């Protein structure tokens, strides 16, 4: 009981559940950012110019336990030129600092990305009994 006569019922259980939840924040972020990066790749692929399909197929999710990003170009030496512009050989392409494919794709599905993040958070809250 506090000095004001307030009795907290269930506080120990609440604090335990909060500790469980916060201990899992890294994996929540890792899982949800991986799903968001996969959705970004799915959106970007149809926009990438196709000759052989290798460039679009080079898009991949790169991440750690607590974060992930969509990236392209593994084994494709001209990917950066295609995505951001510049000069390659005799061909000059307008420079687009934010990129032509991945960033615009992520912006076009921003609502879906927010939903992915919220769903992941809500799922973890339910698992720990904090819903």
Structural overview:
This protein is mostly helical. 52% of the residues lie in helices and 11% in strands. The mean pLDDT is 87. α2 (25-44) packs across α5 and α2 packs antiparallel against α6. A hairpin with a 4-residue loop joins β1 and β2. The strands form two sheets. It has a two-stranded antiparallel ribbon with strand order 1-2. Strands 3-4 form a two-stranded antiparallel sheet. The protein has one domain. The longest helix has 20 residues, at 25-44.
Name some characteristics of this structure.
mainly alpha; elongated; two-stranded antiparallel sheet
Beta-strand proportion: 5-15%
Q: What is the chain-wise order of helices and strands?
A: HHHEEHEEHH
Uncertain residue ranges: none
Class from helix and strand fractions: mainly alpha
Distance between the termini: 26 Å
Give me the oligomer status. Answer: single chain
Q: Going across the major beta sheet, what is the strand order?
A: 1-2
Tell me roughly what share of residues is in helical segments: 40-55%
As for the number of domains, it is 1
Please describe the biggest sheet, giving its number of strands, its sense, and whether it closes into a barrel. 2 strands, antiparallel
**Overall pLDDT:** 87
Number of strands: 4
Based on CA inertia axes, which overall geometry fits?
A: elongated
Number of helices: 6
Please state the CA-atom Rg, rounded to the nearest Å: 22 Å
Concise account of the structure shown:
This protein is mainly alpha-helical and 131 residues long.
